[in-house]
Design brief:
The chain is an alpha/beta fold. It has helices at 31-41, 71-79, 98-106, 117-127, 141-150, 156-170, 185-200, 209-217; strands at 2-5, 12-16, 20-24, 45-47, 51-52, 67-68, 83-89, 92-97, 110-114, 131-137, 178-181, 206-207.
């Protein structure tokens, strides 16, 4: 949204710079479901599309699910500093191209990231002022395990591995701006929306605000 004041000094616009909203959680805590709800509810929010070196799977659309590139191109982009964050996962690379995010933020568009604590650390190093990070916790470990089993997607061994990994992931909770314990999905979505509303109103995101206030004080 843009507003402004008009007077002898001309029209002074105030517009909002977008923000990077990160949701992280151990697998099964509800991060992906909350992300989908937010994207459906918030018109000004778009999902970050990662770049990857892994092969495209059946049904995936380039530019929608991922940007698919080969290892050479990915390495060139690393060397040129063109990623906000990147990581190697199971012999494939994944990363967030900087340019697309910068363009979105400059237009007042908010960008949602579904990444882990390591990616969040890299984003904080690259663009801390634009970052709003939220960690989603399960109400208890029993509920987390029940949610993982209820998916019926993974074997017992995979579930056990995810539960083991969850303890390490949750140890990074204090690195995040906000913590939500996901007792109830609707309530958790409402809380993330409240965070988003408040962060959109932060003084430092209001581009042109000093000039706008100056104009008001001068009677424009």
């Amino acid at each position: 949204m843009t507003t402004g004041s008009k007077g002898q000094g001309g029209f002074v616009e105030v517009h909002r710079r977008g923000l990077m909203l990160v949701l992280s959680s151990p697998s099964g805590a509800g991060k992906t479901t909350i992300s989908r709800r937010l994207l459906a509810l918030e018109d000004g929010l778009t999902m970050s599309v990662s770049m990857t070196t892994r092969p495209k799977r059946p049904g995936e659309v380039s530019g929608v699910d991922y940007h698919f590139v080969d290892l050479t191109e990915f390495n060139v982009m690393i060397n040129r500093g063109q990623f906000l964050e990147y990581a190697k996962v199971f012999d494939n690379y994944y990363g967030t191209p900087r340019q697309a995010v910068d363009i979105a933020l400059s237009k007042g568009q908010d960008v949602l990231f579904d990444i882990d604590w390591q990616g969040t650390q890299q984003l904080a190093q690259a663009a801390r002022e634009d970052l709003v990070s939220v960690f989603i916790l399960p109400p208890d470990t029993q509920t987390l395990e029940q949610r993982l089993r209820a998916r019926a997607q993974d074997s017992a061994e995979v579930v056990a591995h995810r539960m083991s990994k969850a303890a390490d992931e949750m140890s990074h909770w204090a690195e995040y701006d906000y913590i939500i314990i996901n007792h109830d999905l609707d309530e958790s979505v409402n809380r993330v929306q409240a965070i988003l509303t408040a962060e959109r109103l932060r003084r430092q995101r209001q581009v042109g605000l000093p000039e706008f206030v100056k104009g008001l004080r001068q009677g424009r």
